[in-house]
Design goal:
The radius of gyration is 21 Å and the shape is globular. The longest helix is centred in the last third of the chain and has 28 residues. The protein is about 50% helix and about 10% strand. A six-stranded mixed beta sheet has the order 1-6-5-2-4-3, with helices on both faces. With about 280 residues, it is of the alpha/beta class. It binds adenosine-5'-diphosphate.
């Protein structure tokens, strides 16, 4: 059984049925060892993807405050070559961003062939925070689901592998993480009264997430709910989902590189032959 729950297209998500503290009976040490092993596979797959330039990868990370989006990115960057990876955080839209359609700033950050893009928050904010805070009329955010699904289909048609992760933490775990920031002077720079205010809207956010995932999980752009109360299990679940998704392309990418190697070698030999004649 995979560690993260892959949402079946068209199914209704009920987050209360997925345990955020799930860790498959594993201890931290074993999970870290498995993450390292899978991480090595991920490195190899990502290098092959980059070199063959046939596909690109988009990793979308969403979750409540303190759910571990930043930590997940730090973990992934141990295995993904920064030379061909771009991390984009999406904040409250700037004036120029807000003056465009909601996908404008997102599309510009989509990965080019061979590359990986990691989104820290994404276009899903436009159907989540916007909905919870009533920032635009219901009719507007509802119609965005159609645009989101079509946008992700467009990315898929352009050879982008799209994977979306919801980092699922419990309300209790969030309280502990927020309190830890208050207690630890080294973490207090992360303190924000806004996080406590948003926490009061926990139920609304969970509902918005459930709805968003139910409406937009597709076979070509699946949502994964990641049990995220244990950071080490969260990292393992994400790396596993990435390896499982990229692995089927491995032979194809290797073959294309081999073919390129044969062609380059033939060209080099032809060049050497002309040099000898001189
Ligand atoms: P972090 O992602 O680390 O929490 P911030 O504390 O700067 O970073 O939070 C970014 C904020 O931007 C979040 O509260 C998020 O909901 C908000 N945001 C992102 N995209 C949008 C959007 N399209 N509309 C409104 N708010 C947004």
């Amino acid at each position: 059984m995979p560690y993260a729950t892959r949402i079946k297209p068209g199914s209704k998500v009920d987050l209360s049925e997925i345990d955020p503290g799930y860790h498959d009976g594993m201890q931290k040490e074993l999970a870290e060892q498995k993450t390292l092993e899978l991480g090595k596979q991920l490195s190899e797959l990502q290098e092959l993807m980059y070199a063959s330039g046939q596909k690109s990868l988009l990793v979308v990370l969403q979750g409540m405050d303190t759910s571990g989006k930043d930590g997940s990115i730090k973990s992934l960057l141990h295995y993904i070559n920064a030379l061909s990876c771009r991390v984009t955080p999406f904040k409250v839209p700037s004036e120029i961003e807000a003056a465009h359609d909601f996908l404008w700033r997102v599309h510009a950050e989509a990965p080019r062939l061979g590359w990986t893009s990691i989104f820290n928050r994404s276009h899903y904010e436009d159907v989540i925070v916007v909905r919870v805070h009533d920032l635009v009329p219901k009719k507007v955010w509802k119609s965005r689901f159609i645009h989101i699904c079509q946008f992700e289909e467009l990315l898929h048609d352009a050879n982008t592998i799209v994977l979306k992760f919801f980092l699922h933490v419990s309300k209790e775990e969030q309280a502990e993480r927020l309190m830890a920031r208050e207690e630890d002077p080294d973490k207090s720079f992360k303190l924000s009264v806004g996080d406590w205010k948003e926490r009061e809207l926990w139920g609304d956010y969970q509902e918005a997430y459930q709805d968003a995932m139910s409406k937009s999980s597709a076979s070509h752009a699946p949502w994964f709910v990641v049990p995220a109360n244990h950071k080490w299990f969260r990292d393992l679940a994400i790396v596993e989902a990435l390896v499982d998704t990229l692995k089927p392309y491995k032979d194809e990418w290797k073959d294309s590189l081999k073919e390129r190697g044969v062609k380059e070698r033939a060209e080099l030999q032809a060049f050497r032959a002309t040099q000898k004649k001189k």
